[in-house]
């Protein structure tokens, strides 16, 4: 269905069928050439006064309010705590067009699509899933039954254009993310090891980097999408709780929250300060992205991330 703004524009142009012609008759490369020509002509009509006015008022282009040295210090500390086998990777600020909307329930309208047939990264774990799939494919070309894990870690500034209400949330923000890809080894061995490794890493970050006297409560939330299959995974969760210190466990059985994004199980970690204000700073779970991308039902994937931007913005509570 055409939204009202697009309908009004098409009526203004008075060129019936223009949208369908652009969509159905042009290849992406042809549309790119057309749009590059149009944008070049439109930009030529701009002036520096308009440029400066847009920079001052466009919320999408405003810099972060945070000191970049704080990011560097926090991120270096987190990289130093990575479990064995994780490979740091620096990703491009753009990814293939459709990365987020085709792999997750994300409307393309809140993603910045470029006329170079790319999009600005809006979910770093989607991009990591693509890279994991590429690396797993290379491993399978050498050994059709390879169980070698691909474990990646990155920090990325990503952007989403939907309006935000919370003052701590902005159009672009940084995420420190982990991704573990591998093959189904039976008895949920991949799932147990990946879950233990990811969640344990984040609790180690909390315990070794954040100030413990400012954290009143740590809450591990488990969204169990398939209770009948997840008995072994819940044993892993209980192991994590026993290893942690003063961690509250909240389990939502047969949950629908996030089911259209994650598979089998999702975890979140909330931190509560002395004023009883809680912040969700960590989110992760299992997805079917590598399985779908590689067209291989044996492939498994776990992704997760921690909001470093949010951590620094609430630093009066937890950090430094």
**Strand share of the residues?**
15-25%
Radius of gyration: 22 Å
**How helical, in percent, are the residues?**
40-55%
Number of strands: 10
CATH topology of the largest domain: BirA Bifunctional Protein, domain 2
- Tell the overall outline: globular
Corresponding CATH superfamily of the largest domain: Bira Bifunctional Protein, Domain 2
Widest sheet: strand ordering: 1-4-5-10-9-8-6-7
Number of domains: 2
Derived from helix and strand composition plus strand pairing, the structural class reads alpha+beta
Largest sheet: 8 strands, mixed
How would you concisely characterize the structure shown here?
The protein has helices at 4-13, 18-25, 28-43, 48-57, 68-80, 99-103, 124-142, 189-208, 231-243, 289-294, 308-313, 315-318, and strands spanning 87-88, 94-96, 118-120, 150-159, 172-183, 217-224, 247-253, 263-272, 278-287, 299-306.
Task: Describe the 3D structure.
This protein is α+β, with helices and mostly antiparallel strands and 320 residues long. The chain has 2 domains: 4-45, no CATH class; 66-318, BirA Bifunctional Protein, domain 2, CATH 3.30.930.10. Helices cover 41% and strands 23% of the residues. The chain contains 12 helices and 10 strands. The protein has helices at residues 4-13, 18-25, 28-43, 48-57, 68-80, 99-103, 124-142, 189-208, 231-243, 289-294, 308-313, 315-318, and strands spanning 87-88, 94-96, 118-120, 150-159, 172-183, 217-224, 247-253, 263-272, 278-287, 299-306. Strands 1-4-5-10-9-8-6-7 form an 8-stranded mixed β-sheet, sandwiched between helices. A two-stranded antiparallel ribbon has the order 2-3. It is globular and about 65 Å long.
């Amino acid at each position: 269905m055409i939204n009202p703004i697009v309908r009004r524009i098409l009526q203004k142009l008075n060129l019936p069928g223009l949208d369908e012609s652009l969509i159905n008759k042009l290849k992406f490369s042809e549309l790119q050439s057309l749009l590059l020509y149009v944008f070049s002509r439109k930009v030529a009509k701009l002036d520096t006064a308009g440029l400066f006015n847009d920079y001052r008022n466009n919320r999408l282009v405003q810099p972060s309010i945070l000191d970049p040295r704080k990011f560097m210090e926090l991120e270096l500390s987190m990289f130093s705590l990575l479990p064995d086998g994780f490979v740091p990777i620096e990703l491009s600020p753009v990814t293939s067009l459709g990365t987020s909307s085709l792999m997750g329930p994300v409307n393309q309208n809140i993603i910045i699509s470029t006329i170079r047939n790319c999009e600005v990264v809006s979910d770093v774990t989607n991009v990591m899933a693509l890279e994991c799939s590429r690396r797993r494919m290379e491993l399978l070309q050498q050994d059709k039954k390879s169980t070698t894990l691909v474990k990646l870690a990155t920090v990325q500034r990503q952007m989403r254009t939907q309006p935000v209400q919370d003052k701590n949330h902005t159009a672009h923000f940084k995420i420190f993310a982990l991704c573990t890809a591998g093959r189904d080894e039976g008895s949920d061995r991949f799932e147990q090891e990946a879950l233990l490794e990811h969640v344990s890493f984040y609790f180690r970050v909390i315990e070794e980097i954040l100030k413990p006297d400012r954290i009143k409560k740590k809450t591990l939330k488990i969204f169990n999408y398939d209770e009948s299959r997840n008995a072994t995974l819940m044993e892993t969760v209980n192991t994590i709780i026993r290893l942690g210190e003063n961690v509250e466990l909240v389990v939502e059985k047969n949950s629908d929250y996030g089911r259209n994004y994650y598979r089998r199980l999702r975890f979140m970690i909330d931190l509560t300060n002395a004023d009883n204000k809680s912040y969700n700073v960590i989110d992760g779970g299992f997805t079917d992205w590598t399985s779908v991308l590689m067209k291989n039902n044996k492939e498994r994937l776990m992704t997760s991330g921690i909001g470093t931007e949010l951590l620094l913005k609430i630093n009066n509570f937890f950090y430094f």
